[in-house]
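Z., the sequence and structure:
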Amino acid sequence: MTWQSWALDASERAIKTVAQVLVALWATSATLGDVNWSQTLGTAGLAGLISLATSLASAPIGDKGSASVVASYGKHSAQ
């Protein structure tokens, strides 16, 4: 996996994390009018940055070039 593949993988994970946090924070508001947008977007953005940092820290642990700590499926399976 190349640096570009790793970056796409890590970006995808971060975008999913941001979306999940946004949905969770919106769900805790009675209506969309009750959402504190600056706090919600700030929290979601921070979660995305933490996701990228986690992927960066995981790079030397999992499969080479992967943003995951877990090795590829079947690589270490006992047969």
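The helical segments are 3-27, 37-58. Residues 28 and 35 are 9 Å apart (CA to CA).

Let me know what you think.
H.
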